[in-house]
Amino acid sequence: MIDDRDDAGLEALFRAARGAEAPGDDLVARVLADAAEVQAELTAAPAPRPRAGRGWLGGLVQTIGGWPAVSGVTLAGLAGLAIGFSAPDLVDSWSGGQIWTLSGGAGTMPEIGALWDGTWEETGDV
Amino acid sequence: MSQDLPAVSRLSDGALMVLFANGDPGAARALTTRLLPRALSHAARVLGDRAEAEDVAQEAMMRLWKAARDWRQDGGAEPATWLYRVVANLCVDRLRRARRLDPLDDPDAAADSTPGVEARMVETERMAALDAALANLPERQRQAVVLRHIEGLSNPEIAMILDVGVEAVESLTARGKRALGAVLAGRKEALGYDR
Q1: To probe the interface with A, which of B17, B22, B31, B40 has the most A CB atoms within 10 Å?
Q2: Of B80, B105, B130, which residue is a domain's last?
Q3: Residues B34, B87 within the same domain
Q4: Of A9, A14, A23, the CB nearest to B150
Q5: Does B132 share its domain with B160?
Q6: Does A48 touch chain B if contact means CB atoms closer than 8 Å?
Q7: A44 at the B interface (CB within 8 A)?
Q8: In terms of CA atoms, which chain A residue is nearest residue B185?
Q9: How many whole angstroms separate alpha carbon B107 and alpha carbon B152?
């Protein structure tokens, strides 16, 4: 337990410690030399330049998250196309037969000729 | 350079940091005048070794200069608080390294120095005794006591420096001061308690 006298003694000791460590000229000189060196580097280094302007494609790519995102989207699209062409019935079964029903029996892969003679469009309900 | 001092002396530390980064020659001297004594005093009391404290103070100031480029004048940390924090961390690193290198180091060794007869020697002995007593405290308590009672910082400032809550600071300083008083109790006469 610290009594008042001890406390006063400690406070006196703390007071004596304040400012007891004034930096010498040598230390000040070293610190200022460091400062001059760093300051020279700071003022010599050119400010970081903004990157050269990107075209509209670059802007679009950046918007969706850069080229990695583009490759992901492209890969997903190609995979979907490949599955649709190679196994259309599988896609229809995943939809629970909804595509077949909504297409009015034309299914997911109409005859290619139906695309321009209009029969696929006419028979479809959609 | 001396002509720049009156103008810069009215500026805040944060404004001086921005000036420094912009190449103002007076800013470094003004910041050194204001902050180096605090860094040195803090390090000297925590480490109990003047030479080590000078190294730490110089290193901390070097980090301050390097931080100037990204210093934000508004809303950023106060340079003094930032510097105290760097000093605190550098001191902890040195203390831990020293403990690893010399685990049998006697913290009271400095207190056993030969007593002097001149006033300067008495003061030196008092500081040595204080440093030895501080060395007995756990690191966080020591930092908190030095920052509160010697550097005169507020508890919220210390909380930021030590990265703890204000209540923790109050507890650290109270326990630290109590422990310090207990360690120094046997040296009252030498320390001038009984005068």
Answers
A1: B40
A2: B105
A3: yes
A4: A14
A5: yes
A6: no
A7: no
A8: A6
A9: 25
Lowest-pLDDT choice from A39-43, A56-60, B122-126, B169-173: A56-60
Give the integer Cα–Cα distance in Å for B137 and B183: 9
- Report how many domains make up chain B: 2
Candidates B35, B41, B71, B195, partner chain A, best to mutate (most A CBs within 10 A): B41
Q: Measured at the alpha carbon of residue B131, what is the angle toward residues B127 and B135, in degrees to the nearest 5?
A: 170
Whether B76 is covered by a domain: the verdict is: yes
Could you tell me the CATH number of the domain that includes residue B32? 1.10.1740.10
- Contact between chains at B65 and A22 (C-beta distance less than 8 A): no
Pick out chain A residues at pLDDT < 70.
1-6, 45-56, 58-61, 63-64, 70, 73, 84-85, 91, 99-100, 102-126
Residue B2 lies in a domain: no
- Can you tell me the distance from the alpha carbon of B172 to that of B87, in angstroms, rounded to the nearest whole number? 18
The Cα–Cα gap between B64 and B86 comes to 9
Q: What is the ipTM of this complex?
A: 0.78
Please indicate, yes or no, whether residues B112 and B94 belong to a single structural domain of this protein: no
Report in angstroms the alpha-carbon separations of A67 from A73, B46, B138: 10, 53, 53
Give the model's pLDDT for residue A55. Answer: 67
B24 and B42 share one domain? yes
* Calpha distance B136→B128 (Å, rounded): 13
User: What CATH code is carried by the domain that includes residue B139?
Assistant: 1.10.10.10
Range(s) of the domain holding residue B26: 8-105
- Let me know if residue B144 belongs to a domain: yes
Which residue from A10, A31, A42 is facing B58, i.e. has the nearest CB?
A31
State how far Cα B189 lies from the chain centre. 27
